[in-house]
Amino acid sequence: MKKFSTLRILHHHHSLLNLNLNLNPPFSVCFNFNFATVPQSHSFVVSYLVSTCGFSPESALSASRYLRFKSSQKPDSVLAFLSEHGFSVSQIHAVVKRESRILQCNPDKVLLPKFQFLRSKGASSADIIHMITAGPRFLLANLNSHIVPAYHLVRSFVDSDKQVITCLRRNISFIADSRVSPNVQLLLDNGVKRSSIGMMLSMWPSILCSHNLSHTICELKEMGFDTSKTTFAVAMMAKMTVNKAKWVDKVEVCKKWGWSEEHVLVAFKKHPHFMLSSREKIDAVFSFWVEVSGYSSLELVKYPVIIQLSLPKRIVPRSLVLRFLEKEGLRKKGASYGTPLLPTENAFLKKFVYGFEKHSSKLLKIYEKSMNEGNNREE
């Protein structure tokens, strides 16, 4: 393998070693770091990480505790390997900073087989670069005893290798996590359907790296969730990604607009996605719904999916159309304000715009003007 040279900047092995990293004043002062404090046994590693891999002296000293090499041959070969496989300088720096131990790997025996395995499953060079840059610890996992079995486990829950690669692009680190297999079994034992587990693996693989999955399962069961329903998987995602403080904050926003905690629970059970919306988004939807449109906040308990819809490009334009129809006496008294927001755009226009032929031109202008304003706000 060719010697890696494009990344090596100001790396003077012998002089740095002989001086015990007693670097010239400008360099030392620039980093505000006392190189004399670096142990002799770590001096080469520290100098290599700083000058070749873009580390700060402090982070290099910290990483050096886990690294043992006395020449640049092996780390240079690792950097060369990554460079030859299409990684940019910044990507190589990112990989090494996140998992510096790969500098001690044999590229041909440890790294290459993992690249070949991913390619054999349909991963492109761009896929591999993306995955490794995001989760370099994958390169340290044992291929035969860990990666291959974990891959086959994931593959058994999805339809194709392409879906597994998509999953790994989202979070390749999970495949090297020993908690995945027992957590999958835990879900199966609790009645979670294979299709729901496949959805978790494809969309939120980090869920399966949890150390307290059983606690979340019990909590959702106590709320009344059915583990055999797809909503259970979504609810699990919400409970595991929204921390307690943010969860309480979102509940308080709902209560500010007239909901009780029971209303929050009912809405969450109907559409768990709504608790994945930001506090600001939840507040903005309630504000428009109650203060601008004059609707009851309790209608959102029936249709919590509305909270996830785009305010400027869906909720507002459709509400303006409904307001015009109501003003003209063209809607039944007590008709729902929520259901018209749910259909596709074509279905909505057909029923609530073109369905009123006498007023369709005016209704379309109202709708399109609001949509254009919404597009401008989102630009």
Automatic annotation (TrEMBL):
Highest taxon of the lineage: Eukaryota
InterPro entries for this protein: MTERF, MTERF_sf
Keywords (A to Z) from UniProt: Transcription, Transcription regulation, Transcription termination, Transit peptide
Gene Ontology MF terms in the entry: nucleic acid binding
UniProt record, GO biological process: DNA-templated transcription termination
Similarity field: Belongs to the mTERF family.
Protein name: Uncharacterized protein
